[in-house]
Design brief:
Distance between the termini: 81 Å
Structural class: mainly alpha
Number of helices: 24
Largest sheet: 4 strands, mixed
Number of strands: 6
Order of helices and strands: HHHHHHHHEEHHHHHHHHHHEHHHEHHHEE
Strand order of the largest sheet: 3-4-6-5
Strand content: under 5%
Helix content: 55-70%
């Protein structure tokens, strides 16, 4: 019914393909090995703390709050189960993920552009990902891309009698959706690309059409939809029967819209700001490479070979844009496809230089032939200093990490560390030297890493205080927090300083300053606690014994 993909110049996975893939993965490993020394960022620490709570019997949203869809937390339960509270765990996961997405990207590009382009795309994608450092490691968008590619490959290999693959592809896409809702933007990529007859783009007049009948496409899409709905129903039933539904509904339908709307309010010149973020994280020259690649492909009637990358880039960018905020890791949904444009442009440039070199050789213009190759080498060398310098710096950091990991994390500052790891580790060290039950520590701040590394669990459902100080908070949340805090009456309360995140909270106050607008917590601290440890960016309060006079 639905035959295999009719991509032009499709290659089989022969031994030559394996060598190209092995070489690409070797270069990925070379670039990514220093990722082992990545620290655990604020987002990853949140996922880890919640995942550990899930493993200990707590329920998502009801007992542990965050505004992300549920999928990422259950993925992190695997990380917690395997690695435990190891700082380097996120670096290991990032390397394994990068190898997995590189394999997917190689197979995707090889089908249309060949092995050499696939090799280049893998190497460029790895460089684009590593540039952002630990911020992009093991984020929801990275896992979304694995499930999207997996779903695509199942649809692309669909044959007569393999209807279960269409259903399975839908289930995989449901998994991507429950990791991040913006995965829905990839629907055109999945429901159109595997069934398009792309060869018609190489002929005039250029047009797109399905390579199957409308009825067959409709049946395949229906099976895909059935798998997707089956996956979604499973997730919803779990939330309902686990007792998390009311908290899930509150978070996703009441709070999330208010959280998203605040991004537009906090940036008066939103479109100018968004353009700046795109320029910084995607890059002006990457956009130029995409435009140049499309023009060349159109001129050479090779648009069919580049259409998969074009559809992927369009849907990936849509998945980025609908999130409004343009965080660094949001760009992971389009990096692989823009890497393909760079690869195609590089192959076309090489072919053009080879043609000119042969032209000069036929006319015995040896000097011109040497000059054209020298010019090409100079052009290739232009973008290399950035990745090479970055790799040198990363390996230097990797060496320092191997010598003394504790000192390395305490002084971590590149690329642009958003967390105070020195302060976090100082607090963790203090808590370990003063042991207490798991819920005897409350962190009033944005550093859930303190919970994770010290082996503590938050005494309330709020892993960090963003939901309690932000403008989009619900009115009853502070009462919930104070009730649970009073019931647990923890031995330590850690108050953070200089941790404001205006882009997320809508306020320029740090956690210590926010106490002034939370009189219930401020009064509770003054009544039952006293400062006992000051590490600069954190002030640790100790519970006053009942027999002591205040």
């Amino acid at each position: 019914m639905i035959e295999g993909s009719s991509f032009p110049n499709r290659q089989t996975h022969d031994r030559g393909s394996g060598r190209w893939l092995a070489a690409a993965l070797a270069l990925v490993v070379l670039q990514a090995t220093p990722n082992l020394c990545y620290p655990i960022g604020r987002d990853q620490a949140t996922y880890l703390v919640i995942a550990r709570g899930l493993l200990h019997g707590k329920e998502l949203y009801r007992d542990l709050w965050d505004n992300k869809p549920p999928g990422i937390f259950y993925i992190y339960t695997i990380i917690v189960k395997i690695f435990g509270p190891a700082m380097w765990s996120i670096g290991v996961v990032d390397i394994l993920w990068l190898l997995s997405i590189s394999l997917c990207l190689f197979r995707f590009v090889e089908r249309t552009l060949g092995r050499s382009a696939a090799f280049l795309a893998v190497v460029v994608n790895a460089a684009m990902h590593i540039r952002a450092g630990y911020w992009d490691a093991a984020q929801p968008e990275t896992f979304v891309m694995l499930f999207v590619f997996g779903s695509y490959f199942w649809l692309a290999k669909s044959r007569q009698g393999s209807k279960l693959k269409d259903i399975g592809a839908g289930v995989l896409f449901a998994a991507a959706f429950w990791i991040k809702y913006n995965a829905i933007a990839f629907l055109p990529f999945l429901l159109l690309l595997p069934y398009l007859e792309l060869k018609t783009l190489a002929r005039l007049p250029r047009c797109l059409r399905l390579r199957v009948s409308g009825r067959d496409w409709g049946r395949a899409a229906a099976r895909f939809a059935a798998g997707f709905l089956l996956g979604c129903a499973g997730a919803l039933f779990y939330l309902w029967f686990s007792g998390s539904w009311n908290a899930f509904e509150e978070e996703q339908f009441k709070v999330l819209p208010r959280y998203a709307a605040m991004a537009l309010e906090s940036a008066p010149q939103y479109w100018l700001w968004a353009a700046g973020r795109i320029h910084f994280w995607l890059g002006f020259w990457t956009v130029c490479a995409a435009v140049a690649s499309l023009l060349i492909a159109w001129r050479r009637r090779q648009l069919a070979r580049l259409t998969p990358a074009l559809i992927g880039a369009a849907t990936g960018f849509a998945a980025l844009a609908v999130q409004i905020r343009y965080q660094p890791y949001y760009f992971e949904t389009c990096y692989p496809f823009f890497a393909i444009f760079w690869a195609y442009l590089g192959i076309q440039a090489c072919e053009g230089v080879r043609f000119l070199a042969q032209f000069f050789l036929d006319r015995n213009w040896r000097v011109a032939r040497v000059l054209i190759w020298a010019l090409f080498a100079a052009l290739v060398a232009v973008p290399l200093p950035g990745p090479m310098v970055r790799m040198f710096v990363n390996y230097k950091a990797f060496g320092a990490w191997r010598q003394n990991s504790a000192r390395f994390y305490a002084n971590y500052s590149w690329p642009g560390a958003a967390e105070d790891f020195r302060g976090v580790l100082s607090v963790v060290d203090y808590l370990k030297r003063n042991p207490s039950p798991p819920t005897e520590v409350c962190v009033w701040g944005n550093e859930p890493l303190i919970y994770y590394l010290s082996g503590r669990q938050p005494p309330t459902r709020f892993v960090w205080n963003l939901a309690l100080i932000a403008r989009w908070r619900l009115t009853g949340w502070r009462r919930q927090f104070m009730r649970r805090l009073s019931e647990s009456h923890p031995r330590f309360i850690v108050v953070a300083r200089d941790d404001e995140v205006h882009g997320l909270s809508g306020t320029f106050q740090d956690s210590e300053q926010a106490l002034q607008e939370f009189p219930a917590l401020d009064g509770y601290l003054r009544s039952f606690y006293r400062p006992c440890k000051d590490v600069g960016t954190f002030l640790v309060y100790c519970r006053v014994p009942p027999t002591s006079s205040l």
